Amino acid sequence: MIGFGRMGRFFLEEFQKNDKYEVAYVCDMSESCRSLAREKAPEAIVTDSEDQIFKDSSVQLVALCAYADSRKHQIEKALKAGKHVIAEKPIADTAEDEQALVELSQTSKSFCAVNMYLRNSWYYQELKNIIDSGEIGELAILRICHMTPGLAPGEGHESEGPSFHDCGMHYVDVTRWLAGSEYKTWHAQAIRMWSYKDPWWLQCHGTFENGVVYDITQGFVYGQLSKDQTHNSYADIIGTKGIVRMTHDFNTARIELHGVTRTEVIEQPYGGKNIDRLIAKMADSIEKNKRDASMPTFADSALASELSLKFLADAAQHDMPPKGSLETLEEIRERRRHMKNGYGLLPRNQET
Model confidence at 161, in pLDDT bands (50, 70, 90)? Predict the structure, then answer.
């Protein structure tokens, strides 16, 4: 494992639960992160040298959980060393580097996957199955929304861009997956909340090549200074004969189907980042020497990244008004520095 910040710790927990894996190394440049890794992963060698991992022929898989600007050279080293890769998204910090890695992965014998976690969630898989079953008729409209008081501007992830790229590319990807088609048209509107230089809320609507219409809304602007924080996350899917919708509260996900032959409510635990599902698929791929086709590819990630940046660029061509002040943003940051429970909080001892 390379990178032991917020996502790296999620990955470690799931690797340790899966008896098909042995965590051999944890690498991080931060001494405080390495100290925590020694506590959380006493079975592993904790190091600040990624090359130590790439040179160890016994390592079969590397999980890349550091920031996007480090991933290109790490992926190149991993594939050169013949190791399988699970990467966080985006797989690089520029579109050119992402495309280069797509081409590299397509010629490599190693299995590559990206943690596009919504693809692995039980609720989006169920929505996809319902669409494909014809229960709501012909798919016509996809409405996807995810708004939380999450990662604030300036807290980190700067190499991953504004929130619609850092987080929104998940929703760009899963909407395309549900539609079963490629994006054809788009029109985006954004707002510069707290007068920050980049938009932290964006909505985009348009069409797919197959005629399905979509709208995607994503933002980390949802009541950061409210006394009791909340969120709004849903999928609203409309067919020519019926509908199916999903909501979740980060604990339980709920699907409501109003189809042509059945009306049904399905509730199950939310499942978090679904890392357990992704690493189980990778383990199965390695054991069978055949890549599980349901794992998101580098190409899936690069396309979602490219499109989310295009939507941001489109929004910049329209009126993108500022609202609020940088002073309010600093209040938000200060509050989040001291919160023990909240949305998308970064580890306090994470230095990079």
Answer: confident
pLDDT digits (tens, 9 = 90+) for 309-331: 999 999 999 999 999 999 999 99
CA–CA distances in Å: residue 187 to residues 96, 172, 191, 206, 216: 24, 13, 14, 6, 11
- Residue 214 CA to residue 237 CA, distance in Å, equals 9
Element (H, E) at 261: none
Q: In terms of Cα–Cα distance, which of 300, 306, 45 is closest to 164?
A: 306
DSSP letter, residue 117? G
CA-closest candidate to residue 8, choices 64, 52, 50:
64
| Residue 116 CB neighbours (<10 A) | 23
149 pLDDT above the threshold of 90: yes
Q: Quick one: CA torsion of 49, 50, 56, 61, rounded to 10 degrees?
A: 150
